[in-house]
């Protein structure tokens, strides 16, 4: 391991916030990014008014991320005042993702036939690629993991690892994959959309312990 690698800190994104208390806990734990689901078919989704209220309480230097699935441009634009980063989970084209004058990341579901090198080139304007488990008909939030060995050691874009991460397995995930960041939703919940403070704290501790290895 090089000196540079040993100094790397894995960034942490918690996703699926619906309650102010959960945001306050995440911020106190030092989480880097907070995700808000702006897809109405999700049980963790929030409307524009709820997004505005929650996002307004997020302090400086914590990124507010909006998660979209094949949205209309009008819907994304309505949410923009409350977001720092856009996360696209559907079949959005690179041109669509890049059309909002906002940094963005592209989520890719790890189906058997995916060519990550091709996708990294296709979505070259993204800030990172988020790799999630594949389940037909479900764009994310499955709570399932995938075979992390399928991720190339070198990829043209930073990797955000998602899919079935929990306080119990995230240390191994970070140690094996060495992603730029990890993203979790269900793995830190007491129930859908309601976070568990102790699991949130445990997740952060486990990531830090993996970074120190």
From TrEMBL:
Record-level Gene Ontology MF annotations: phosphoribosylanthranilate isomerase activity
> Which EC number(s) does the record attach to this protein?
5.3.1.24
Transcription recorded as keyword: no
Q: Which reaction does it catalyse?
A: N-(5-phospho-beta-D-ribosyl)anthranilate = 1-(2-carboxyphenylamino)-1-deoxy-D-ribulose 5-phosphate
Domain N-(5'phosphoribosyl) anthranilate isomerase (PRAI) stretches: 13-205
Query: According to the lineage, what is the superkingdom?
Result: Bacteria
What's an example Gene Ontology biological process for this entry? L-tryptophan biosynthetic process
Q: What does the record give as its pathway?
A: Amino-acid biosynthesis; L-tryptophan biosynthesis; L-tryptophan from chorismate: step 3/5
Q: Which UniProt keywords apply?
A: Amino-acid biosynthesis, Aromatic amino acid biosynthesis, Isomerase, Tryptophan biosynthesis
Family recorded in the similarity comment: Belongs to the TrpF family.
**Official protein name in the record:** N-(5'-phosphoribosyl)anthranilate isomerase
Q: Which organism is it from?
A: Vreelandella subterranea
């Amino acid at each position: 391991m090089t000196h540079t690698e040993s100094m790397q800190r894995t960034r942490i994104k918690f996703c699926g916030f619906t309650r102010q208390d959960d945001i306050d806990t995440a911020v106190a734990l030092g989480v880097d990014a907070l995700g808000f689901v702006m897809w109405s078919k999700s049980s963790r989704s929030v409307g524009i008014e709820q997004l505005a209220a929650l996002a307004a309480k997020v302090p400086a230097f914590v990124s507010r991320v909006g998660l979209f699935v094949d949205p209309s441009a009008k819907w994304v634009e309505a949410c923009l005042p409350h977001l720092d980063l856009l996360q696209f989970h559907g079949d959005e084209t690179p041109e669509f993702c890049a059309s909002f004058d906002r940094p963005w990341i592209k989520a890719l579901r790890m189906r058997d036939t995916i060519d990550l090198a091709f996708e990294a080139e296709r979505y070259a304007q993204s800030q990172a690629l988020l790799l999630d488990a594949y389940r037909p008909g479900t764009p994310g939030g499955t709570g399932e993991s995938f075979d992390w060995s399928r991720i190339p050691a070198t990829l043209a874009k930073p990797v955000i690892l998602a899919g079935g991460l929990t306080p119990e397995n995230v240390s191994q995930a970070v140690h094996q994959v060495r992603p730029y960041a990890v993203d979790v939703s269900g793995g830190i919940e007491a129930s859908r959309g309601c976070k568990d403070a102790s699991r949130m704290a445990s997740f952060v501790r486990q990531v830090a312990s993996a970074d120190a290895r």
